[in-house]
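Worked example (supplementary).
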Amino acid sequence: MRPLLQRLFGKKVRTTAEPAYVASTIKEVTEHLQSSIFVGDDTIVYRSFMTGDPHPRECLLVYPEGMTDSAFLSEYVVKPLSQLSLAPGLWGAKLSEFLSEQALPVSGVEERTLLAEVVDEVLTGDAALFVDGCAAAFIIRSKKLTLRPPSEPQSESVVRGPREGFGESLTVNTTLIRRRIRSPKLKFNFLQLGQQTHTKVAVAYIEGIASPAIVDEVKRRIAAIDIDGILDSGYIEELIKDEPLLPVKTIGHTERPDVVAARILEGRVAVLVDGSPVALTMPFLFTEHLQANEDYYKHFAIGSVDRLIRYTCMFISTSTPALYLALLAYHPILIPTHLAISISAARQSVPFPAVIEVFVMGLLFEIMREGGVRLPTPIGQALSIVGAIVLGDAAVQAQIVSAPMIIVVAITAISGFAVPSFYGVMILLRAFFALLAAVLGLYGYFCGLIAATVYLMSVRSFGVPYMVNFTSFDPQNIKDTAIRVPWWVMRRRPQLIGRLNPERYRKGARP
Amino acid sequence: MRRLALLVIVATTMLLSGCWDYLELETLSFAMGAGIDAGPDDSLVLSVETLKVEGGQPTQMTPYVTKAPGLTMFNALRNLTNLTGKQMFFGHSHAVVFSEEYAKRGVGNAVGFMQRDVGIRTNTWLFVVRGASAEDVLKADAPLGTSVGHYLDRVMQVQHRNPTSIPIQIWEFNRALSEEGLRPVLPAIELVEIDDSKVPMVEGCAVFKQDKLAGWLDAKDARILSYLRSREVTGVIVTELEFKGEVKRVAAEVTWSKVKLEPKWENEEVRLDIQFNLGVDLHEIGFADFDYSQPDLKRILEEGLARQLKEDTEHLMHTLQKELESDVLGLGNLVKKKMPSHWRKLQRDWEREFSKVPVTVKVAVLMTETGTLAKPLKGRL
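After joint prediction of all chains, the assembly is encoded as:
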């Protein structure tokens, strides 16, 4: 029994083949690459040429088409080598030393002997040079990728603040951060993930500010990932986040280098993924849902007002349908007299009970939103016209829904958009509250609220309590929550996250 | 197992409690006020003012009154539901009016029901109508308002600015019923004709003996009674002053006040000392050359106002002691608290004792403000 189970469910032992080395003759190398590793792949270019007289020797340049600067290669690799004459006795280690130190007039040259490594480099867009008689490949840095230029991310546009956003290239993205933090303490640690995609992943943090425990934990979790492909940072987020089963966000994401830089400066760790313009930051606390980079660029009072509005919006968006339902169906005594009567009048000929109305209208709005999200702008406008006129106005005119319900849906939706990073959770929370309110009235709503709060209190993000800023009146912890105090007051980094180096600057920074 | 038990406990406590009950707003009929008239054979007729609501822009709300007879109030309420087909919702009702005849029979049953019922707010105002039926009050016109119930509520809210009665809510009335040595009162309504419309005017008080109507107080007496019961003087004091052979009116608004009712035991009998201390704000003065910035003239003014308040108070005491012989002041209650041993002897025949209690009234008025004028306007007739 046991062997069978083990055969079915036991861990498979991965057999690792003997590492293959680069052969010393061009013939063998060509054989290896062309008819074994890259067989059937027509994007790989094999350019063979001879070194100059009197003792011509065969060379082979291998690179992927379109990803490499071929003009650069012909000017600085093929041309000098074909004019170079190699001594007949120059072989092996001496040859490779001569080539990399004297013969090749390019800055990025690396010698590789493992074939697998060579293949890896070629696939990232560099060229590999093989010379007959040398059991090594010279990797020539000649990547030339066509990239989307860094533009303002549409998902996080600002009125005031840098317009730059991350692109798809990891190298460019790291430079965008490096340009903001010119410190040798800023570290980028590279990892490679994905059995098939071999995606490069960078873990960024500032040594001496970020807690080593958190950095190690991030690296440990990333290293434990075993998946065939990483196409976006979302894969990594889902594979390493705390509370994987529930949609609470315990890892932040942003497309803005300024946001990443700010979070790194606070002692957080960022993870960048090649091919994804979205960087992950961790630990992520609940307050961060309600923070926006612009809060820090504006006057602190105005930023604080914006914060407070966002807090209000979060409350409105999660609770309005539930409160509307509870008041209407269970506690009409709590509605101001005239409002109660006018709602009653509006509902006089509506055929559906309030519960159905709340859920159907809520669903309808989410359908419109989801329908519009991926549409190109011109069609999107048509959708909003249909939504506004047909569903809003006509439904009320035809007395299928009541006008107050439309107001509730509208205010819920608009306030939801004020807290975009919380939106997904908000939909679920809203439905949960509304359901409880429909069954148990205000009592149910408060039960739900308490349950949600208790749960959030138990969540941790990389060891840091999720709601740490809400559980105490410690002035240090609440300086950057519902309000944003001026910079000269925010002298300390967030506790628990930046504890290693708690002070941002010395006292007396106030102008 | 323990987890399961915990889950069951949490689930049952969550699901077996909750707010009762799911109802649709449009199936309710919003009562704004109710009136109770006496019917034949100890029965009653319940009239309820509701709003006829018509959707549209803006929403049309027209008050109308429906009525149904019943043996008790609850019975009548259910009879009314059968009549309208909608559940009567009293959550927004603010006024219940008793007719004079019904109040004479006793309102205890109805008021007890209103306190007990979950649907009726215990902060609903109670009234007794004089010289008309309760139904007439509800059918009367509410100035600047949608419904009589709402109008009466607003009138009660502003009573303290110019007291003509004593606003009483259901819970206060019920508490007064159970107190010893304190007779309950309710505000009285009279229907007054103003420009072809009948307006329910709140003036004076209905005085109760236990839960039965026993007599009336007019607006002037009710006003002083409200001062004594709430231990606070509010509103405007108007008096006449004689100065240089002329008699003119003076009006001042009370800004702060302190009212003390002190029962004393002297010469084997209860005495009552009433002490008013109040600050006033001069609003109107008829004389052109009465310079109230002079201390002696100011004193004349203050003494005039004090005399007025003293006279009014003495008038009220006369009415209460000689005409109605009823202790609506709550003096008996004070005696009971202050000197329980004497109360035991007095309580048997308290009402008669009350009518013989000697009363001393002292009033001290301090004029602190004179509006935006420090001196009178001269050259005015």
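Two points are worth noting when inspecting this output. DSSP finds twelve helices and 13 strands in chain B. The interface with chain A takes residues 14-15, 17-26, 28, 30, 51, 53-56, 59-61, 89, 91-92, 121, 150 of chain B (CB under 8 Å).
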